[in-house]
Specification:
Blueprint lengths: L1 H70 L2 H7 L4 H11 L4 E7 L5 E6 L14 H7 L4 E3 L4 E2 L7 E10 L5 E10 H8 L10 E5 L5 E4 L14 H9 L2 E7 L2 E9 L6 E7 H53 L13 H29 L6 E3 L5 E4 L1 H6 L14 H6 L7 H8 L6
Antiparallel strand pairs: 1-2, 1-6, 3-5, 4-5, 5-6, 7-8, 7-11, 9-10, 10-11, 12-13
């Protein structure tokens, strides 16, 4: 019972201490980790939005580089002078690259002098003076990037980004311009469509008027004006930053970044609940890890306590119990360590001394030639010899009467007073 109790107390106390410590530590760390994980996910979305704007700038730069290259070529100047043959050949070569929907050169009236689209359609003679990218050049602009994505084909399947540049003679006089219409889907397929956050997070883009010009998952929203939506209105105000807003009954987190040249807004969107769920998953992992840590520590400590403390105490308990019953041949097996080893050695030394002293006392008592009896503090016989048995006419062996009250042995009545009881009670020598 004692061993079981001390084992329970020690293991229980250690378990409680370890559990409280680990719970506090894991609780604090998991709470901080949850906030950190959520912040890291949001930060990743913000960084992705900024990186996408940088990619958009490179995409725009490529179009501008093409316009600079075209206006620097003599073949396109020849088209303005009335000889468009070489210009057509040159433009056809560039179209084979697959990045452009259409390339063209136009005069001061906005008529196409040489041009072709990716379907092979000759654009020569078309009046494009009403197009913003042509009008901007004819009204004195040096270069222009259209703020809106154009629907380049009547079936609505092709969309393009229009960029133009003034074509001038060596004296700087305006001769017309060139226009480059780049496939818009080349950009969206590379930098918008693949992006995912949590399980249903995605990327999208608004133009300066609030029209969706790119969407990774919902094609039905493409090129629709959603300026009346709360999300769009707030995005057009914030432009660069972050916000949380409802969309179709669900709160979503938005990371926004504006392209300064076009006024377009790149937007990364994810469900707030999904972001929190992902962070909570990391937190739950820490909690499970903390629980397993507690179990391992408690099991290890229980094993050590049982091996190094409880088992040696049980052995010592068995040893002392045997000695108390008069079995002086009992032995205490080695196996303790540290202070318990010293205690075991002391117990063995004490029992050895008891053996010597009790052996001496037993020898003295056994040598008495007269009837002799010894009682303990409870007036019970702990020793008597054969001569005492013979004197009172008792049968059997002295061992049979050990533990009897002196009155029971002498008179057959446990309550009968005896000289032994009187001497024990008054603590003096009694004769009679």
């Amino acid at each position: 019972m004692f061993a079981k109790r001390i084992n329970t107390v020690l293991v229980g106390a250690v378990t409680l201490a370890v559990t409280l410590a680990v719970t506090f530590m894991v609780g604090h760390v998991s709470g901080s980790f949850y906030e950190l994980a959520l912040e890291l996910e949001e930060q990743a979305m913000r960084q992705t939005a900024r990186a996408t704007v940088q990619s958009l700038d490179l995409f725009l730069d490529n179009g501008e580089i093409m316009t600079r290259s075209l206006v620097a070529q003599a073949a396109l100047h020849e088209a303005v002078a009335g000889a468009p043959a070489r210009a057509r050949e040159r433009l056809d070569e560039y179209l084979k690259d697959g990045s452009y929907w259409a390339l063209l050169v136009f005069d001061l009236q906005g008529r196409v002098l040489a041009g072709r689209n990716a379907d092979g359609e000759d654009l020569t003679g078309r009046d494009l003076a009403a197009r913003d990218y042509v009008r901007a050049i004819l009204t004195g602009g040096e270069s222009y990037t259209s703020p809106e994505i154009l629907t380049a084909r009547e079936d609505g399947q092709i969309h393009a980004l229009a960029q133009s540049r003034a074509l001038r003679d060596p004296k700087g006089r305006l001769l017309g311009g060139v226009a480059v219409l780049t496939y818009w889907n080349r950009f969206t397929e590379a930098f918008i469509d693949p992006l995912r956050f949590a399980s249903r997070g995605h990327a999208l883009m608004f133009d300066a008027r609030g029209r969706v010009i790119a969407h990774a998952t919902d094609r039905a929203l493409l090129f629709r004006d959603v300026n009346n939506e709360n999300v769009t209105r707030r995005a057009l105000v914030i432009r660069t930053g972050e916000m949380t807003a409802p969309w179709r009954g669900e709160d979503r987190y938005y990371a926004l970044a504006e392209d300064q040249r076009t006024g377009w807004i790149v937007c990364m969107s994810a469900s707030v609940a999904e972001l929190a769920k992902a962070a909570a998953g990391q937190r739950d992992f820490l909690l499970i890890l903390g629980g397993l840590t507690v179990l391992v520590l408690v099991a290890t400590i229980s094993l050590l306590v049982g091996t190094l403390v409880v088992r040696p105490i049980k052995d010592m308990k068995a040893f002392t119990s045997a000695v108390a019953r008069g079995d002086f041949s009992a032995t205490l097996q080695p196996g303790s360590c540290c202070e318990l080893r010293n205690l075991a050695e002391n117990l063995q030394h004490m029992v050895a001394e008891l053996k010597n002293r009790l052996g001496f006392a037993q020898g003295v008592l056994s040598g008495f030639a007269l009837p002799c009896a010894v009682v303990d503090r409870d007036n019970r016989l702990t020793f008597l010899n054969h001569r005492l048995l013979a004197a009172f006419g008792k049968s059997g062996s002295p061992i049979d009467h050990l533990g009897e009250v002196s009155g029971q042995f002498l008179y057959g009545d446990p309550a009968h007073p005896t000289l032994l009881l009187l001497a024990l009670t008054e603590e003096r020598i009694v004769t009679g």
